[in-house]
Amino acid sequence: MKRFALVGLLVLGSWGSRAALVAQAPGQYHLRQTIQIGGEGGWDYVAADSANHRLYVSHATKVVVIDTATEKAVGEIADTPGVHGIAVAADLGKAFVSSGRANSVSIVDLATLQTSSKVTTGENPDAILYEPTRHEVYAFNGRSRSATVIDAASGTVRATIPLPGKPEFAVEDVAAGRIYNNIEDKNELVVIDAAAHAVVSTWPIAPGEEASGLAIDVPHHRLFIGCSNNLMEMIDNQSGKVVGSVPIGPGVDANAFDPGTGLAFASSGDGTLTVARVDPSGQLVVVQKLETPKRARTMTVDPATHRLYVPAADFVPPPADAPAGTRPQVAPGSFRVMVYEMK
Questions:
Q1: pLDDT for the residue numbered 20
Q2: Distance between CA 180 and CA 189 in Å, rounded?
Q3: Across residues 229-242, what is the average pLDDT?
Q4: What kind and span of H or E run contains 59?
Q5: Which is nearest to 119 in space by CA: 162, 157, 92?
Q6: Do 35 and 71 contact (CB within 8 A), yes or no?
Q7: How far apart are CA 333 and CA 64, in angstroms?
Q8: Cα 92 from Cα 101, distance rounded (Å)
Q9: Alpha-carbon Rg of the chain, whole angstroms?
Q10: pLDDT higher than 90, residue 6
Q11: Strand partners, 268
Q12: Distance (Å, rounded) from C-alpha 55 to C-alpha 52?
């Protein structure tokens, strides 16, 4: 009887362990909603503001603001020519929008969505982030190969940081006082000391190439970068070493990480969004290949709801007599945001 009881306990223990693992395993993402926006023109980054239940979507020369509770557009931030990115400073009640064609960053009141001022940056500011400890905004200038550091409260420029090449996306580790930025044309990742406003390390990302998207898992010291040679790499952000990778679709432009689920994401222009996680052995593994519209290269995750937001549109092929290399154009009225939910 003792032997049977022991076996029973082992079976129950084993079942309990498996049940715990199942409970921790992520579900699969499915399409929840399509938010129609319409209008004309392309898009770039999208940013979620969990605290205020808002989504900021770049679109042509403006930013569309969506209420994520009602899944309806509730306003616009106007006059942002060549808009790229949006950084939200909820503690200051402000947003900062990079306008590539205007070489400026717009400072926006979150309550009214009105622009209070514009700050001149380097050429073609693209990625942008808010560092909440020092209340600073970093605008990464693609053509100038630099980062403009702006005092978020006063709107004055505090520093200009030279970079070794063309910057792409960036993320911050507030506790470590570090900012990480992809240098797309050099196949490198730079580490910026937020206090010194200076690059303190430069790390190669081989075998990855031409990294664009970047996300961070702060507690586990991991970076996830999307590379143009169809890889999402995992990098130890203390040593700078590549410690894992998974295959992704071509044309990646954005990465995200959800600390609540432990999932990392990479969205690609071929119409796939790769979902991955680190398994118990420390390996990065793919858990889902989510089908998305073609050319839906950017996205974000709302860590409060775990929903994915993916801007998309239909495209019109170029005329038969168009010059070689002419890109398809966004079909008027087709712009939308796809909302994916885990089930």
A1: 37
A2: 7
A3: 98
A4: strand 54-59
A5: 157
A6: yes
A7: 14
A8: 26
A9: 21
A10: no
A11: 252, 272
A12: 9
